[in-house]
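Quick one: structure tokens for this chain, please?
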Amino acid sequence: MIAPDGACVVASASSLEKEFKQAISSGGNVSAATEVGKTIAERAKAAGIIKVAFDRSGFRYHGRVKALAEAARENGLSF
């Protein structure tokens, strides 16, 4: 997540992080995207952010993109 003015990264999560690599078998599937969505929501809330804009960068809203977005919503982010 990037601050509204674009000056800094407020929160981030990636399936390449050590904690994810131990918990999931592959970083490129729906279950990994779900875990990343949960984590980014937790980190954003810890930074005091609950409302965000979700930019899917032209990707269709299905599969991993959908899983990440739904997990983030279920864990408290609003977009």
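Residues 30-46 form the longest helix (17 residues).
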